[in-house]
Amino acid sequence: MMSSCRFAFAVHVLAVLASEKTDCCSSSRLARTVNTNPVVIRRLLIELQQAGLISTLRGPRGGAVLKRKPEKVTLREIHQAVEPGDTFGAHPNEPSPECPVGKKIARVMGRIQTRANRALARELETMTLADVLRELRRP
Q1: What pLDDT is attached to residue 3?
Q2: Which CATH architecture is the domain 6-137 placed in?
Q3: In this structure, what DSSP letter does residue 95 have?
Q4: List of residues 6+ apart from 82 with CB closer than 8 A
Q5: What are the boundaries of each domain within the chain?
Q6: What does pTM read for this prediction?
Q7: Where are the alpha helices (DSSP H) in the chain?
Q8: What pLDDT score does 2 carry?
Q9: Which residues of the chain have pLDDT under 50?
Q10: What angle in degrees, to the nearest 10, is found between the helix axes of 6-19 and 129-137?
Q11: Count of other CB atoms within 10 angstroms of residue 60
């Protein structure tokens, strides 16, 4: 099973936007800093814009710009914008109803999922994009 890198990419992109001295940063420039395809970045930018975290401008001088100060952007907001699903996946197949574990595992895992999602949200709510920028400046 592969884990997603969308959250890491989104934090990277927003950190670049927060530290850029120019008005806008193009998706191709952001893609170079992340070392990925510009299409991947453009898809992320759409989600970040829909979440109200960035603004985008079209045209030759267009690009993305951070909409709020870094200290006003929580990592939870970023995570919700690009990874709205659960922390981990569920059983891909229906377990055997004859198995004592199989007939109850979905309910048990659902409770664990709920607790894990809450814990992640709580922790990410305590961190901001400004915290990321501070960490990036550390030697």
Answers
A1: 61
A2: Orthogonal Bundle (1.10)
A3: P
A4: 6, 7, 9, 10, 44, 47, 48
A5: 6-137
A6: 0.88
A7: 6-19, 27-34, 38-50, 75-82, 105-125, 129-137
A8: 47
A9: 1-2
A10: 80
A11: 6
